[in-house]
Design goal:
Order of helices and strands: HHHH
Structural class: mainly alpha
Largest sheet: none
Helix content: 40-55%
Number of strands: 0
Distance between the termini: 11 Å
């Protein structure tokens, strides 16, 4: 029950960088349309965050992300 933008900023304070949606929709202040299409929930579509991983992502980084998310 937290706005996605709030979560993004709280994670930034810990030097963890995520977004609330795709780059092509980053300027829009609307609910994330993909999440809305999947869930039909405006609450979920505005509280979701987008996490990108790659083959360079370390397990320790994922553990840190999970720990920080649990604390907020």
């Amino acid at each position: 029950n937290m706005n996605g933008e709030t979560v993004v900023h709280l994670l930034e304070e810990k030097e963890i960088y995520v977004s609330t949606g795709s780059a092509c929709s980053s300027k829009q202040k609307k609910p994330e349309k993909t999440i809305y299409a999947l869930t039909k929930s405006e609450v979920l579509a505005t509280s979701s965050i987008r996490i990108s991983l790659s083959h360079l992502t370390k397990y320790e980084e994922i553990d840190e992300l999970i720990s920080v998310l649990n604390s907020i």
